[in-house]
Amino acid sequence: MTVFFDGGCRPNPGAMSSAVVCRGKAAFRDDLGAGDNNEAEWLALLHAAEFAADTGASDVTFVGDSMLVVKQASGQWRCRSPHLQPYLDAFRIAVAGFARVHLRHVARSKNLAGIALDRRGLP
User: Fold this and answer.
1) Does the record bear Chloroplast in its keywords (predicted)?
2) What integer pLDDT is reported at residue 57 of this predicted model?
3) What's the burial of 93, exposed, middle or buried (CB within 10 Å: 0-12/13-18/19+)?
4) Is 80 exposed, middle or buried (0-12, 13-18, 19+ CB in 10 A)?
């Protein structure tokens, strides 16, 4: 299963929202509190992991446009930010039940969740 994710906030920092797109369907979360863009992206990835788990998926590819989140979540980069570490820890717990997890970075213009979030408009 491939799940696209994107998070954003306006202003930055500001009110955060997330979007997840899978199999042509979009799911949105608003009112995620105040935070910065990186926190919004992490919350979107957690939203995507929850979405995938709810469908019973076992082999999941998460696709996002945040290089920081994709690289940290995949273990390619260390998380050096104490305020982002809890998100990484939560992601590891959220995907522990999946047989296989892949993360892929794409350009913003190719991120279906980012496109859905833009079309819908951030709060």
Assistant:
1) no
2) 95
3) exposed
4) exposed
Helix axes 85-94, 37-55, angle to 10 degrees: 10
* Cis peptide upstream of residue 11 (ω within 30 degrees of 0): yes
Residue 58: CA atoms inside 13 Å, Cβ hemisphere, count? Answer: 1
Residues 13-49 have pLDDT tens digits of 999 999 999 999 999 999 899 999 999 999 999 999 9
Task: Please answer whether residues 64 and 106 qualify as being in contact, where contact means their C-beta atoms are separated by less than 8 angstroms.
Answer: yes
Tokens of 26: 């979009």
- Between CA 98 and CA 77 the distance in angstroms is 21
Residue entry with tokens 């079309």? 119
Is 75:37 a contact under the CB 8 Å cutoff?
no
Cβ contacts of 81 within 8 Å, gap of 6 or more: 38
Helix (H, G, I), strand (E, B) or coil at 89: helix
Separation between Cα atoms, residue 27 and residue 86, nearest integer Å: 23
